Structures are given as C-alpha cells and as structure tokens.
Amino acid sequence: MAKKENESKTFHSLVESADRKFARVRDLPLYGRAPQNHYFQKVFRAYTRLWKYQQDNRSKLVDCGLSRWEIGEIASRIGQLYFNQYMRSSEARFLVEAYVFYEAILERKYFDSGGSGKAKVAVGVRFKELRFYARFLLVALILNKIDMVRLLAERFKTLVDDSKANFRETNFKEWKLVVQEIFHFMEVDSAFTNVRPLRYCALFDSHPASHPYLARFHARKIIKFRDALLTSYHKNEVKFAELTLDTYRMMQCLEWEPSESLYQKRPVESVYKKHPVELSENGTVIDHSGASGLIDINLAADLTDPSLPSNPRKAVLYRPSVTYLLAVMATICEELPPESIMLIYLSASGKVARSNVFQIESSGESKKSSKDRIVSGAYSEQKIYALESHCNGKRESSDYHDSCLWLGPRGNGGSNALYPCDIIPFTRRSLFLIIDSDNSHAFKVLHGAERGEPAALLLSPLRPAFKNPSAVDTTHNGSQFTFFLTAPLQAFCQMVGLAPDSDMDSYNDAEEILSIAFSEWEVILCTSTGLDLVWAQVLSDPFLRRLILRFIFCRSVLSIFCPPEDDEQYLPNLPTPSSQFRLCKI
C-alpha cells in the first residue's frame, strides 16, 4: 500500500512539474522570431516522462484512484501544446499533430462519464471536457475537417445542454455563447464547403502557361515574404473563440495546402483502435500495445511534403489594443530578416475626417490633378508634414487628423483609434499593407510618405456591392473585399446572388475561365517594362502574386458591376502606380 501511495505521489509530482512548464510555454508570445524551441523541448520532455510513468504504472495508479479523465487531461495538454506551437510557427505539421491527439481523446472517450445511469461527473471535470471540445473544434475548423466540425458541434451542444440540466447551480451562459458562435460560423462558411480550399494549392493556383515567364522574371530587387500580422475588429462580427471570419479566411489564404492525404475520405470516428502509442522525447510517438496507448501519429508524417516551402509566420491578433498592435508590429519589423517583407492585414470600421485631401480626390473633377500631385515631391512633403503635424499634436481644421480605424469600442476615444501616421515608422522596412475598411482611403497618404521602403497598398472599397443588398447581411457574412482576396469566385457568386453548389458544372467552368485569366495576367505583369518596383519586387512570391491577381479581378468585376458615378465608393484602391493593373480588365 505504501508503495502504491509513493507511486501516486510521484505521478502527481510529475503532473505538477509538467503543468508548470506548460504554463510557461503557454504564456510565451505567439509572435516574433525569438528562439523558443528549448522551452518547447523542455515541456515535451516533462510530458514524455509523465506519460511513460503512468503507462508503466497504470494498474497501480488506477488502484490509487487514477481516473480516465486525468489521462485525457494530459493528452489534451499535449494537443494544446502542439496547437500553440503551430500558432507561433505556422508549420502545418504541428496543427495536424494537435488534431490527431484530440481525435484520439474523442475516440477513447477519456472525458466520458459513461452515459446515463452511471456516476455523475464532477463539475470541474465537465469544464475540462467543454474546453477540450472547444479546442478540438478550433483545430478541426482551421484544418477544414468539415465533417468532424459538424460532429463536434452537435456533441458540444448536447454536452452544454446536459451541463445546464445537471449542474443547475453553475452558470454555463458563456458556454452557450460559444455554441452559438460555432453554429453561426458554420452557417456562414457552409455555403462554400464543397468548393476549393482557401490555402495555396498547386492544382488550382499554379498556372503552367505563365511558368516560363515567372522563371525568367527578374526585378532590380527581390524580397521574400516572411511574416504577416492579421487582425480585425467589427461590432458583432462572425467569430469562433478568438478567430474572426475575416482573419480565418486570410490566415488560410497565406498557407500551403498540405498533402492530399489529409483530405482523403476517412470515417469521422477515428482509426486509432489498433495502434496505441507513447510519446518520445522529441514529440514523436512510439508504438505500444495495451489499452493505455494514446495515438498513432504516422498521419503527420504522411502530410509532410518536402517540396513545399515553409509557410510565412502569422501573428493573428484578436481585438488587440492599438498600443499592443503597434508593439507587435515593432517586434516583427525588428526581427524581420534582410530583404524580407511583412504583410499587415487590418480589417475594421473607420472614422472619416471632417475635412481632408481624400474628399478632394474623391470628386470626379479633381481626379486627374490629384494623380499629377501624387507623383510630385511637393505633394509628398505636404502629406508627410500633415502626418507629422498630427503625430506632434497639431490639430488643424483642414487636416485629416480624424481619419482612423477603430480597433475597439468608439466610446474609449483615441485609445482604440489607429491613424495612418501610426504606420509611418514601420515603413523603414518593406510592407505589404491590406486595409479593409469603410475608411480605407484614409491610408492613401502613406504612398509617398514612407521613411525608407515604398509600401505596397491594397485598399478596399468604401462600401460593398451586391446585386440584392437586402439579401446579404454584410455584418454577419464577413468582408466582401477580404472574400475576394481569399476566394474570388465564391465572392463573385455571393455578389450576384448565386449559390456555388446550385450548378457545379457551371461553377467549375467559371473556375477554369478565371484560372486562364489569372495565367494571362501573370504573363502581362511579368513581361511589363513599366511595372513599379513596389510590385515587381514581390511578384516572385506565390502568396503575394495571388493576392495581386485577385485584387485585379475584384477591381475589374466591380468596375463593371457598379455604376460609374459611384466608382470611388465601390472600387478598391491602389494608390501606387498601377498602369499595368488597368491592362488586366475582364
């Protein structure tokens, strides 16, 4: 008996040690390139020792009161560890490994109390189970495992309803909101689940006809896409957990599609019955027999494609304060390797100044003169002076100091306002800036005001355009501009009121037509002698090139779809020289 008690104490000591190391890793920032692998290895070694100890002493620990949910909690922590590492590195293998761990927990029913008629589970264990479902849902959602997402959502809803019925003294209101979030997210995203993935896929996004031109393309300067910062803030925007619909779409758009083995049809209920395994020190898994095994991670090895480049790192921020956003931007810029570019995606509503140069430029009679002034040094100096005046606190009635994006509730004043001048210090490095806002044109002033490198700017329309506006709730369907950049044909179908799966043959024909158009536009851009360097230097990168082509498509269809008198309201804007983009009209 004393020996069993000692083994139980040793087990709980290992649990506490692993949990402390896990907490340190969990609290590390999810952005930047500071070396953190040694923390990751330490916590993995701790959980390896813990898992091996409980496996070798399972029967004795069970006699001392070890419950299945305690084993499930260890496995859940490991899955969470993998997911956090994916968020830091954007390496798909970590995301897949998190999925495999969570699926094994679901298959083995580690948190299951045994059904009706069995002993009632403790409320603390129930909260652990709810957290497990929420985390597994997020991983499955990012991996586009739609069948699993549906299964988990239904079980999650049933579990929350059961919790409310059996734990009447406990408030489960927040969990009810989480259930509503995932079903709302699925409802918005489900209209396009039967079409191509958002990630970069060679089958769809690589155009053989333009390959020779891309191979021969040489700009005076070539920079590599290394890092991205993604954030959005809209009142009542569609989200699940801390991932909004807009950032979800953009996040997927900036990743390579994993190997096809991920998308092979598998039963939703897992396949881990025959291969129980154990963690090794480097995070891989060793096969073992017996009921205590956890998971066969060979699936992750099958998904590793050595021919694919690494994904750009992505810092996905959920409703950050402006000061935190600027701090993250500063960290990423500071750690950005030489000859590299950082993508910044900001989606938020804005505030238009009372009197500014954008209002002048929006009038039809001043368009030509505005373009002439953009290329003049005097106009650039005027913009820089105006931006500096605002940053220094000089408020002039004719200035555009009130133009901003709102990254939080407006009642908090300027603390939630992001101004164009806030971006200026970061233009000492190369930036690819995407502003999706009803006040995006306020950021035109960045062109010509850069402190070092010219910034590539893609600015959204001020208003979305739909054939039947009353049939589309823009607040609850995500941004139209972001949709065009991440899923252009689906966005077009939404704009004209068509369901992609209503006639899949026609949809596939349209996909082929669009692919041919993108291929031709690639050739035009690669053979141009007048393409501005800000675009030429990023054209070799497949992710940024795809965004540029989709921007051209977005502007082309909107220029045809929208009335000419309102083109400034409904067209995306490109303040940098864009004569070659205008060649690419449908």
UniProtKB/TrEMBL annotation:
Entry's Gene Ontology BP terms: DNA-templated transcription
InterPro entries: SCAI (IPR022709)
One Gene Ontology term of the molecular function aspect: transcription corepressor activity
Pfam families: SCAI (PF12070)
Family matches, as PANTHER family: PROTEIN SCAI
Protein name, as recorded: PROTEIN SCAI
